[in-house]
Automatic annotation (TrEMBL):
Residues 672-686, 782-794 have a biased composition (Acidic residues). Residues 720-734 have a biased composition (Polar residues). This is Serine/threonine-protein phosphatase 4 regulatory subunit 3. Residues 705-719 have a biased composition (Basic and acidic residues). The lineage of its organism: Eukaryota, Metazoa, Chordata, Craniata, Vertebrata. SUPFAM superfamilies: ARM repeat (SSF48371), PH domain-like (SSF50729). GO terms for molecular function: protein phosphatase activator activity. Residues 5-101 form the PP4R3 EVH1-like domain. Residues 736-763 have a biased composition (Low complexity). One of its GO terms (biological process) is DNA damage response. Regulatory subunit of serine/threonine-protein phosphatase 4.
């Protein structure tokens, strides 16, 4: 059906008692063979799909609200609503429902759901008792009226009948006139009864009664009745607050009287629900569901009316961005937009999209850029709330605006940099605003929400922009509060005490923790960009300075950052860590922590456990070569012994590989002599020097033993020593030559060569041929062994001596 009379929106009530929009379509009432009855059908106006198919059940309670709403429940926790574009369409469908159920269309509700016992009692009632008989509305009968209203709340049928009685006799206005009399006479007993009556009428949960009670003529008297709670010694002053304290501020004059009335009504009803009425108990929580719906649809109507008034919004934006606007006026404008955006959350998704697109077209983001840089804390806080609505609605829209900002402007005035600076400069000791802004930044830089089909290159373009213009602003506090380890060594003088550059201020430490949390997120999600930034800025070294902080949570944040880097299992990162010797501050912290069993201890051990379990060979070799002597005493976990075991297994595998694919010099000589021998046999038939290898072996062995003794004496002189910084540097290699250069002096990155137990290597084996051959294979390194030991080649560029030559 194409006419607008039957154009509707379908809503369902979710678990949070909020209405969810299911779509827009056209409603009809037809007989459905499958359901065997007259049913309500709603077909989507976009594609004709079926949005709703609901049989009109004779026992279902349908309720008409505000002339354009029909609400009902199909199951215990499944409420539905049809919101009509026109009143005529709502009346037409309502008449059809009442016709099926045999009810009078003049009623606002067909019936209430009732249990079996209630139904049986209802069937036994005489037909004459159609309405509840109300006592005369007199001062002396207030107690009787209060008892009646209170008694019907437990019975759905009697609640319905009482509501009809109250509507038919204009009883509400008479009660409110009595309230004025009681207040003039200061009749406290009568006022207490009126409190019970009005509260009970609200709990009847009838939209028709709300329309009367919340009208301009009655609402303040309703609030007055609710001031006199019998449980209070003195009445509350709600009317005084609503009329004198709460001021309705028009940033731009609203000329539509209906809109003004709707805004006043919604504010006051919201005040009644949130402030005046007590929190409903478990048994009463459904009593005010209609009141919640009343407020919800009022807000939808207000936003729609404001959005349609283009002149109004244009004028608001013009004043907001005008430099001549006074600060006080600008504050009111920003607060208006904050409330406006909050109300917009009640809109259905497609209308909310249109709402935010309207704001974007009018220039909400440039306006926010101006007001977020103002000194007024209230304005900045309101602007942050508006920004959060925009980011939550469409991160892509915000990113697109940021990238289109003119590049000739200073980086400081870019919107994201304004947000970062506001986060850094948050004056709140608990950094509440900074936490909120950090969450917004995280949403903006999250690649998960950059996968829009309309812009395939959004992720690459925005991340390149962010790392070029914004990352240095984000990391500035971090770099300012840490110094390069090389520069700080003069301050440490071999001590492991607190680094003097670490922030002792709790608020600064909290801020650095927030920044580290964001950087840790980047490591996980921005593989290329963050890797380049870390390498260029030597960022991990700077961050690990914070391991010395007296604030354990900050040290844990620094450790978590390194753990996330190692968790990437990227050899570029691993080489960077090895080259910079970046395990040293972590191990120093572990040793300084001593025997304390705390979170810091567990987190550091977990880091090494991960390296062991994942068998990260380059890191295992680096840790064992440099730090095992300092770590081998830790025996309450098997992590470090396990690392040593992994290291030994890898060393054995390399030895086997050498045995399998390489031959020592002596074997080569044997093969050469065999070749010459065979050649000469073929030519002359004579055997020449067949026993040469055996004859020359004592001489070769003597040279080898001489070289080995020199090596052993050098090893003893170069026994591991403690470095000036208080940590140990150890190297464990399968080759004795790895620790020394060609000139016999210690290599740049190694202090000694040791056997697995930390002592210099010795050989006590008898001088048999097999033993010597095995020893030579295990200790000799050949110049073509470059592809397997790239890391050692980088640290020690000098050639290793060949023992066989």
């Amino acid at each position: 059906m194409s006419d607008t009379r039957r154009r509707v929106k379908v809503y369902t009530l979710n678990e949070d008692r909020q209405w969810d929009d299911r779509g827009t379509g056209h409603v009809s009432s037809t007989f459905v063979e499958r359901l065997k009855g007259i049913s309500l059908l709603v077909r989507a106006e976009s594609d004709g799909s079926l949005l709703l198919e609901s049989k009109i059940s004779p026992n279902t309670a349908y309720q008409k609200q505000q002339d354009t709403l029909i609400v009902w429940s199909e199951a215990e926790n499944y409420d539905l609503a049809l919101s009509f574009q026109e009143k005529a369409g709502c009346d037409e469908i309502w008449e059809k429902i009442c016709q099926v159920q045999g009810k009078d269309p003049a009623l606002e509700i067909t019936q209430d759901p009732i249990d079996e016992s209630e139904e049986e009692r209802f069937e036994e009632m005489p037909e004459t008792s159609h309405l509840v008989e109300l006592p005369p509305c007199e001062l002396a009968r207030l107690e009787e009226i209060a008892d009646l209203v209170t008694s019907v709340l437990s019975s759905p049928i009697r609640r319905e009948k009482l509501a009809l009685a109250l509507m038919s006799e204009g009883y509400i206005k008479k009660l409110l006139q009595l309230f004025q009399v009681c207040e003039d006479l200061d009749n406290r007993e009568g006022l207490h009864h009126l409190y019970e009556i009005v509260r009970g009428v609200l709990f009847l949960n009838k939209a028709a009664l709300f329309e009367v009670m919340f009208s301009d003529d009655c609402i303040m008297d309703v609030v007055g009745c609710l001031e006199y709670d019998p449980a209070l010694v003195q009445p509350k002053r709600h009317r005084e607050f609503l009329t004198k304290t709460a001021k309705f501020k028009e940033v731009i004059p609203i000329t539509d009287s209906e809109l003004r009335q709707k805004i006043h009504q919604t504010y006051r009803v919201q005040y009644i629900q949130d402030i005046i009425l007590p929190t409903p108990s478990v048994f009463e929580e459904n009593f005010l569901s209609t009141l919640t719906s009343f407020i919800f649809f009022n807000k939808v109507e207000i936003v729609s009316m404001l959005q349609e008034d283009e002149k109004f919004l244009t004028e608001v934006f013009a004043q907001l961005t005008d430099e001549a606007t006074e600060d006080g006026k600008r504050r009111e404008l920003v607060n208006f937009f904050k409330e406006f955006c909050a109300f917009s959350q009640t809109l259905q998704p497609q209308n909310r999209d249109a709402f935010f697109k309207t704001l974007a077209n009018l220039g909400i983001l440039p306006a926010l850029e101006i007001v977020m840089g103002m000194d007024d804390l209230q304005v900045r806080a309101a602007a942050t709330d508006i920004f959060s609505y925009l980011v939550e609605f469409s991160p892509s829209m915000v990113r697109e605006f940021v990238m289109q900002e003119p590049q000739q402007t200073d980086d400081d005035v870019l919107l994201i940099n304004v947000v970062i600076k506001q986060m850094i400069c948050d004056s709140d000791p608990e950094l509440g605003g900074a936490v909120q802004l950090m969450g917004l930044l995280r949403t903006l830089i999250d690649p998960e929400n950059m996968l829009t089909p309309t812009n395939k290159t959004e992720k690459t373009e925005f991340l390149s922009f962010f790392y070029k213009y914004c990352m240095q602003v984000l990391t500035a506090p971090l770099l300012a509060n840490t110094v390069d380890e090389k520069k700080s060594k003069a301050l440490q003088e071999g001590s492991t005490k607190i680094n003097p550059v670490c922030p002792d201020n709790f608020q600064t430490a909290q801020l650095l923790a927030l920044i580290l949390e964001l950087l840790t997120f980047c490591v996980e999600h921005h593989t290329y960009h963050i890797k380049t930034y870390i390498m260029n800025k030597d960022l991990l070294r700077r961050i690990l300075v914070l391991m010395n902080s007296k604030h354990t949570f900050l040290a844990l944040c620094a450790l978590r950052f390194m753990r996330r880097i190692i968790g990437q299992k990227d050899e570029y990162y691993n080489r960077y860590i090895i080259k910079g010797n970046l395990f040293e501050p972590v191990i120093n912290t572990l040793l300084d922590n001593g025997t304390r069993y705390n979170l810091l201890n567990s987190a550091i051990i977990e880091l090494f456990e991960f390296i062991k379990v994942e068998d990260v060979k380059s890191l295992i070799a680096h840790i064992i070569d440099n730090y095992y002597k300092a770590l081998e005493s830790i025996e309450y976990v098997q992590t470090f012994k396990g690392l040593k075991g992994r290291y030994e297994q890898e060393k054995d595998r390399q030895t086997l590989r050498l045995n399998r694919y390489r031959r020592d010099a002596r074997t080569l000589d044997e093969d050469e002599e065999m070749w010459f021998h065979e050649d000469e046999d073929d030519d002359d038939g004579e055997a020449v020097e067949k026993s040469r290898p055996e004859e020359e072996f004592p001489e070769s062995y003597g040279k080898y033993m001489e070289t080995k003794k020199v090596k052993e004496s050098d090893d003893k002189e170069n026994f591991p020593k403690q470095t000036p910084t208080g940590s140990f540097k150890f190297t464990f290699s399968h080759s004795a030559g790895a620790a020394n250069g060609a000139n016999g002096k210690p290599a740049a990155s190694h202090a000694a060569s040791a056997s697995p137990n930390g002592s210099p290597a010795k050989s006590d084996a008898p001088s048999g041929t097999l033993v010597v051959k095995t020893a030579m294979v295990g200790l000799v390194d050949y110049p073509d062994d470059e592809d397997e030991d790239e890391e050692d080649e980088e640290q020690s560029p000098r050639k290793r001596p060949r023992l066989g030559s």
